[in-house]
Amino acid sequence: MANDERYVIEMLHITKEFPGIKANDDITLQLRKGEIHALLGENGAGKSTLMSVLFGLYTPEKGIIKKDGKEVKINDPNDATALNIGMVHQHFKLVDVFTVLDNIILGAEDTRFGFLSKKTARRKVLELEDKYGLHVDLDAKVENITVGMQQRVEILKMLYRDNEVLIFDEPTAMLTPQEIEELMQIMRGLTKEGKSILFISHKLNEIMEASDRVTVLRKGRCIGTVNTSETTKEELSRMMVGRPVQLVVEKKPAVLGEEVLNVSDLHVHSNMYKREAVKGVSFSVRKGEIVCVAGIDGNGQTELVGALTGLEKSSKGKITLCGKNISSVSVKERSTAGMSHIPEDRHKFGLILDFTLEENLVLQRFKEKEFSKKGFIRFGAIRSYAEKLIKQYDIRSGQGAVTTVRSMSGGNQQKAIVAREIDRGLPFIIAVQPTRGLDVGAIEYIHNQLVRQRDEGKAVLLVSLELDEVMNLSDRILVMYEGEIVGEFDPKKVTIEELGLYMAGARRQGGEATA
After folding, report:
1. Residues 280, 265 contacting (CB under 8 angstroms)
2. Pairing relationship of beta strands 507-508 and 511-512 according to DSSP bridges
3. Could you please report the per-residue DSSP string of 18-84?
4. Are 68 and 8 in contact (CB under 8 A)?
């Protein structure tokens, strides 16, 4: 079969450079019509850069792009849209204060005599919602809908523009297991309609389940393209990282010490949802254990973490850390009392994006003796410390310690936060989705770091939506449903299926079926 009949997109010998780094080095990628083609690679391997070249966000130094066998020039996203290429970005490109409908039609408005006509647009969007099972409230403001719903808005934006080639950049990084399954079904439905999908992911389970073929990148180079049905997770992880990866965490039995955190009858009101989000939660975490809060997103985990860290106020209850009542003290005082925090939203609460990597690595510590003297910052000491962490945690960036964090890949931003928080050596660590958006090699490293902290006698509270991570890492599992803890489990004695029933509210300890 001739190439022009076979491939809807061909990216041939693409090279893209940034200061200090060759992000794409002579990469060739070919997408067949009607297939889901996965793009797999470590953080900073060049996946998002390659897709940004296809979408017109970057211009490559070398290489050509063909659409349906003909060479095309894509200088900006408008050119990509004209060629029916659409992209759902890892960090969504939505206007929070606009409605869902306004976001979908933004830039592709239907006007009559200079006036905006929303009636036709609404009809078309409702038809798309029904056709693909992508139901969202069109009149809701984007800031008031869940991350999963925001992703649906991004997909509807592409479908509204009649895109044939759909690029999904880390589409499941922010989704619950249920939303991920829904997305996989939507993607399969789209290919049946003749759409072609490029799907960036780190998650080997999803790639094995959803894709037809996989192209693996490592350090900016193409390692190879394989048929998904003819490979294994182990083989893909070896291609991706360059060595065998331990997919299951090995850990010794927990050796418990004294209580570090005690939470008693905690209540938290949610300002966003105008209701009580945490209802009478009580639990403790001791030295030498990893306690995991599991649950479907939106069941009070975010508000619980907010109350523990001081980012939200509790309306009732008591929080004790290392014997000190911290219920109403500031974020800084909680940090001083012994709390490290790996936040859920790395951009909002974890980093100052326009600061350098080295500045971000000492955010809470620049006034300490090690980094300042008589009120003056010791820049040399900060540089040395940053370089130590960059090497230890394999944080990849174009210009090392002086790289602006905004320009780094999402996974490397996450590694920077994890490095900073763990290296502080405090007795209590709250880790919220610590491996979100990370590749298998980085996940393996961070899991081992958290287990090492636990083995050194630290108390770890893990909040995760990834059931594999929950089962792998925790010594105790607390399941949250509608703001309450409905069950406490030993991971060795519970199945994923049983956990799922508690997470969905179908069961609770001390009484069956709540829903």
Report:
1. yes
2. antiparallel
3. ETTEEEEEEEEEEEETT-EEEEEE-TTSSHHHHHHHHTTSS--SEEEEEETTEEE---SHHHHHHTT
4. yes
Six token digits for residue 20: 């200090």
Cα–Cα distance measured from residue 263 to residue 458, given in angstroms and rounded to the nearest whole number? 17
Cα 421 from Cα 431, distance rounded (Å):
9
The helix (H) or strand (E) run that includes residue 293 is strand 289-294
- SS3 call for 285: strand
The sheet that has 36-41: what strands, in order across it? 85-88, 165-169, 196-200, 36-41, 213-218, 221-227
DSSP track, 349-391: II--TTSBHHHHHTTTTTTSTTTEETTEE-HHHHHHHHHHHHH
Q: And the tokens for 317?
A: 């209850």
DSSP 400: G
Give the span between the Cα atoms of 292 and 430, in whole angstroms. Answer: 10
As a whole number, mean pLDDT of residues 448-477 equals 93
How is residue 38 written in tokens?
């996965």
Least confident of 163-177, 279-293, 301-315: 163-177
Q: Angle at which helices 118-132 and 147-160 pack, to 10 degrees?
A: 110
Rounded distance between C-alpha atoms, residue 49 and residue 118, angstroms? 35
Q: Do domains 3-241 and 259-512 have the same CATH topology?
A: yes
Rg over CA atoms, the chain: 24
Question: Which class is domain 3-241?
Answer: alpha beta
CB–CB of 368/347 below 8 Å? no
Residues 132, 133, 138, 142: what is their CA dihedral angle, to the nearest 10 degrees? -100
Q: What are the Cα distances from residue 210, in Å, to 197, 227, 228, 263, 513? A: 11, 12, 9, 41, 33
Residue 130: enclosing H or E segment and its boundaries? helix 118-132
In this structure, are residues 470 and 491 in contact, taking their beta carbons and an 8 Å threshold? yes
**Cα gap 279→421, rounded to integer Å:** 29
CATH code of the domain made up of 259-512: 3.40.50.300
The domain ranges of the chain are: 3-241, 259-512
Q: Give 116's pLDDT tier (boundaries 50, 70, 90).
A: confident
- Distance (Å, whole) CA 421 – CA 441: 19
| Distances from the Cα of 431 to the Cα of 301, 309, 441, angstroms | 12, 11, 18
> What pTM, to 2 d.p., does this model score?
0.71
Tens of pLDDT, residue by residue over 204-229, are: 888 999 999 999 999 899 999 999 99
